[in-house]
Records
---
Amino acid sequence: MSTPVLINTLEFVEQSLEIHDKIRASDLPRVQEVLFSGRGDVEYRLVGSRGSRGKFYLQLDLRGTLGLMCQRCLNGLDYPFEIVRRFELVKDESDIPDSDLDDDDVDYLVIEPRLNVTDLVEEEVLLALPMSLRHEDGCSSGDGAPKERKPNPFQVLEGLKTGNKS
Ligand SMILES: [Zn+2]
């Protein structure tokens, strides 16, 4: 385990600081859990900035490649990703607007004297991982992964109907 990176978020944006680093997937236990190969790393860059009207922003850029599993052939699949997340800092939870009314571009973070950047990176990587991942150019495994495993659209509709029953 590497030492967690802690920042004082308010200080960080007030001074327009910036940090970047590379974290091995093996140092992100919850990401590690979903990995097929255990391989992969995440590069991140965190930038603090002041917006107009006294607003404070943190921007988190993430990129890397993770060894995930193809849901069709159950073999390894390298998943490259690039994510940009923007957070507005707020004093406390009550300052967070109703998420339904807000646009999806900005998220909110409560000001913290000791924000664990490693945790934040881990969280955002997990959120960005696809629910169902497949080899885009078709699976190449020789074990005859059946193509018919593709869900029957009628069954899917059926599932939706029953799922919505109240
Ligand atoms: Zn596959």
Note: Residues 94 and 155 are 43 Å apart (CA to CA).
---
Amino acid sequence: MTGRHLEYIIRELPATHDALRLVAALHHEVLPSRLHASEDSRAKFLDELVDGLNGREHLALAAFTEEDQPVAYKLGYLTGNRHERFYSWLGGVHPFHRRKGLARALLRAQHEWARKRGIRTIETQARGDNAGMLILNLQEGFQALGSIYAVDQPGVRIILRKPLQ
Ligand SMILES: CC(C)(COP(=O)(O)OP(=O)(O)OC[C@H]1O[C@@H](n2cnc3c(N)ncnc32)[C@H](O)[C@@H]1OP(=O)(O)O)[C@@H](O)C(=O)NCCC(=O)NCCS
């Protein structure tokens, strides 16, 4: 899948260490909690990305500048045996490239990809204090299903679901 949004180019990435290294590096610039992660923890995170996507039907999308700098990403995978649910796992946009519609463009590309495959619902989670993610997801048709306490960080995560078909 290749598309464009404004001056950005959207590409599908294979779930390999080489391709996802870009996404892992960007994730550490996007999430303040990861800014000071050690080299070990960064390497482990990259392994988690590759392992999380491989062996499942998945979609890894990234947006690049015209100079080929990665600035946004959105990763997800199918859950369960049947084509019934897609889990949108991780997404983010580099702080210098926010509020230009990139997160919305990647979300729509992901939902279109899933809808075309006959996937019935899409689920995601967002931290209760993540206004940007929550607002965007609600604007794009997700509904809040409930909340869970995160095991890794303080605070709750809101579980969101959107019917696709
Ligand atoms: C949330 C995030 C992905 C939004 O990316 P973005 O490209 O700036 O979003 P968009 O430009 O597509 O915004 C779409 C809409 O979402 C809403 N929105 C986005 N960021 C917002 C914010 N900080 N506060 C309130 N609403 C926000 C707005 O309604 C916006 O539309 P508008 O700009 O026309 O008003 C980005 O801020 C980010 O990467 N945050 C940190 C990463 C993160 O929290 N990831 C989740 C854990 S994996």
Note: The mean pLDDT is 94.
